Each structure stands twice: as structure tokens, then as C-alpha cells.
Amino acid sequence: MNLTILTGATALLFLGFIFELVRRRRLREKYAVLWIFVGVIVLGLGLFPTALNHVAIAFGVANGVSLVLFFGVMFLLLVCLHLSWEASRLEDETRVLAEEVALLRLRMDEQSERTEERSAS
Question: pTM higher than 0.70, yes or no?
Fold first, then answer.
């Protein structure tokens, strides 16, 4: 099978999978945009493989595959950084919510103690 056809078909399957995840509400739209962008890039490179060499020459890179590898690694690093940022934000939010729940429980316990004291007197 020709690599161009295989890459194009894989990109189309990838895009279909992303749309299905969004449709089933398993992937939020803000993340889907990023993955749709990646799918479109892969589809474009799959359908027009010589374009990669032109882009590599424009960047001063001798080989298009090296350029793809570099951009792939940079993309993965950015995704990891973004997910770390999201995890940190969610951790802070969880801590604040846990503190608020603890304060509400304390108030409820105090209120129930006052109610028990009043009913005992």
C-alpha cells in the first residue's frame, strides 16, 4: 500500500475519531480544536508529501523527516506542559473546595450540637 494513501486514511480515521469523541462528550471542544488541527496537518502532509521537503528547505533543515520529528517532540512537550498546568489548576481548586466542605461540616456539627443542647434543656 502506498504510504500517501495510508497516511491520508489514517488522518481521516483520526479526525473521525476526534469528532466522535466530541459528539459523545468525551472530549471537550477546547482540546478537540488542537487535535483537529493536528489531524488536518497530518492529512495535508499525507496527501502532499513533497510539501514537507519544501517546508524543511525553508527552515534550513536537510531532511523533512527530521523536521517532522522535531515538531512532533515540541508538540508533545507543549501538550505535557498544558496538561501539567491544568492538573495544577485543578489541584488548587480541589484544595479550596475541600477546605470549604470542611468548614461547612464544622458549622453543621456546631449547629447540631446547639440543637441537641437546646432539646436537652
Answer: yes
